[in-house]
Design brief:
single chain, 347 residues, alpha/beta, TIM Barrel, ten-stranded parallel beta sheet, 13 helices, disordered N terminus
Length: 347
């Protein structure tokens, strides 16, 4: 199991002390913690970090109350692949395996037809995704006309995984009526090189996020994958710092999924690492809901991630395990079921 101690934060343990009273004061005042404080928290011994989880959980309650949203998608909010099973990057953690599970949509005309059928069958919306080109972009812009017609002819909410894209494409998608953009943020070019095969500078992520905000995209939900770097923490804190360049709708924390037929099929993420990132995200973004996404390992690890995520301060969980329900009820939270993608705020 990978350790929760990352090289980037070892210096924090040697010289910096943060009184818990200071963290409590900031949490109570909805004042974000600094990067230095976040780095320190990531490297606390677990018994000390558990005290931080209590603080971040209480801070989440100031925004959401004693309530947690459980998100379920299925037929009500399916994901569609605009590239079928094709992906130019073929990243080490996926190798297009995730695309094999998704219905393919090959043209704008087909997208409109699929959206009409989805609405007739009771769907509320859909997630447009797919494989990446050589620059880590999903070709959502190629479907702008289909998105525009689908928005005109149906009442579906349409959101998309875009990857880091240019300002002109964001404007095009906004003009087409796209409701939201989900963007995976990886705060380390070294990690993107190792996993994706290309270096992605943080400026590309920042420019994409700012373009989404500047053009008034209604839903902006950046994602951070814990353990993407072969199970260890590396990019996550800087990813959160990148997200601070805007005011997101929500922040979705996901975790490395061990997929068969990939070089990373035997890599496992540490649930305690996920909890650390959830708590730090909550304390860095006091007024923004933190969500555990549907991609978050499997089996007992997935259950443990759900349990610790609730204790660390999430406001929502996608495709929750039974452990999530048990812990939520044990802690006195009401549970509200939502049938949309977890990047979409509840009504």
């Amino acid at each position: 199991m990978p350790t929760s101690m990352s090289d980037m934060g070892k210096k924090a343990n040697s010289g910096m002390l943060i009184p818990m009273d200071d963290l409590r004061r900031k949490a109570q005042a909805l004042e974000p913690i600094s990067q230095e404080e976040a780095e320190f928290i990531l490297n606390l011994p677990w018994d000390e970090f558990e005290k931080v989880m209590t603080i971040s959980r209480k801070q989440a309650d100031k925004i959401s109350g004693k309530r947690i949203y459980f998100y379920y998608t299925g037929d009500k909010y399916p994901a569609l692949s605009l590239t079928g099973e094709q992906c130019s990057l073929m990243c080490n953690h996926c190798k297009a395996e995730l695309l094999k599970r998704l219905p393919p949509v090959r043209s704008s005309e087909e997208l409109v037809k699929v959206c009409r059928n989805l609405e007739r069958n009771g769907a509320k919306g859909c997630l447009l995704t797919g494989g990446c080109d050589a620059h880590a972009r999903v070709p959502i812009g190629d479907f702008a006309e289909g998105i525009k017609r689908a928005k005109e002819e149906t009442s579906l909410t349409l959101i998309a995984h875009t990857g880091p894209v240019e300002e002109e494409e964001i404007k095009q998608l906004k003009d087409a009526g796209l409701d939201g953009i989900l963007l995976d943020i990886v705060g380390s070019p070294e990690t993107t090189k190792k996993i994706y095969g290309i270096e992605i500078p943080e400026k590309r992520y920042i420019d994409t996020l700012k373009s989404c905000e500047n053009y008034g995209i209604s839903i902006i939900s950046p994602h951070v994958c814990v353990g993407l770097d072969y199970g260890k923490l590396s990019h996550e804190l800087n990813s959160l710092r990148i997200i601070q360049s805007i005011t997101p709708t929500t922040i979705v924390i996901i975790a490395l999924m061990p997929l068969l037929n990939t070089p990373m099929k035997d890599v496992r993420v540490n649930p305690e690492d996920v909890a650390r990132i959830v708590a730090v995200a909550k304390l860095m973004f006091p007024s923004i809901p933190i969500t555990l996404g549907c991609a978050k390992s499997a089996g007992d690890l997935r259950s443990r991630i759900d349990e610790l995520g609730i204790r660390a301060g999430v406001s929502a969980i996608a495709m929750p395990t039974e452990s999530a329900r048990e812990v939520a009820e044990e802690l006195g939270y009401s549970i509200e079921k939502v049938e949309t993608c977890c990047g979409v705020p509840p009504d």
